[in-house]
Amino acid sequence: MTLDPELPPLAIVDLGMCGYREAWERQLALVEARKDGGGVDTLLLVEHPHVITVGRSQQALANVVAAGGVEVVSVERGGDVTYHGPGQLVAYPIVRLGEGERDLHRYLRNLEEAVIGTLGGFGVDAGREPGKTGVWLGGAGGARKKICSIGVACRRWVTFHGLAVNVSTDLSYFFRINPCGFESSVMTSVVEELGVGVAMIDVKRRLAEELARTLGRRLL
After folding, report:
1. What are phi and psi of 196, to 5 degrees?
2. What's the whole-number average pLDDT of the chain?
3. pLDDT category of residue 22 using cuts at 50, 70 and 90
4. With contact defined as beta carbons under 8 Å apart, do 32 and 7 qualify?
């Protein structure tokens, strides 16, 4: 990966397994600093214990079918309802968008492109689904499957929240919700598609590189 010293830096912070609310507070603190021009753009990488998050979509809460003992948290990101849990790589880019970058549709496409590039490196042929945010791939019998959910927020052109890639996620947890308004069976994972495991650390490394590339940043 070419490191252009003229590009804005992107710091990587790996939170490991971290509670959702703790990571959320970490995001908000970074956003406040970046809004005032402090700090640097930061990519938080994390796995969460089981949690269901509800975005700003009007139908989001209605798409929680049977949470059971899983905590449900309402947040300020765009999108509907989704599930986070072990084996899922969640990435939160806290990025101050500069002049020429202030287009959230373009930003979403950059996140999708980074995930597509990451998955391609592991032999998963992923792409976009017209009119639907996230990353998708063809499933058995031609059915489309979703492998990555995306939901973001932005304050004074500083982004937060982000994306969740199912690496070795227990997909049965998605049956507690209608993920992003879809049938729960639409969800898949890297392990489900490949039939073999992949190292989470390798996925983290590749995703960080791809996000730096698509967002026009250099890794610190």
Report:
1. -140, 160
2. 94
3. very high
4. no
Helix (H, G, I), strand (E, B) or coil at 165: strand
* pLDDT tens, position by position, 70-112: 999 999 999 899 999 999 999 999 999 999 999 999 999 999 9
Q: Which residue has the tokens 């939160």?
A: 92
Q: Which domains does the chain have, with CATH numbers?
A: 9-219 (3.30.930.10)
Q: What is the DSSP letter of 174?
A: G
Amino acid of residue 194: L
Two tokens at 107? Answer: 């930003």
> 180 catalytic, yes or no?
yes
Across residues 45-57, what is the average pLDDT? 96
Split at pLDDT 50, 70, 90, the class of 164 is very high
Please enumerate, as own/partner, the contacts of 111-114 that have beta carbons within 8 Å and a separation of 24 or more: 111/150, 111/152, 111/162, 111/163, 111/211, 111/214, 112/148, 112/150, 113/210, 113/214, 114/207, 114/210, 114/211, 114/213, 114/214, 114/215
Catalytic residue among 18, 148, 154, 180: 180
| Three-class SS state of 99 | coil
Q: How many whole angstroms separate alpha carbon 71 and alpha carbon 157?
A: 30
Separation between Cα atoms, residue 195 and residue 216, nearest integer Å: 34
- Paired tokens of 119: 């998955």
Who has greater pLDDT, 131 or 116? 116
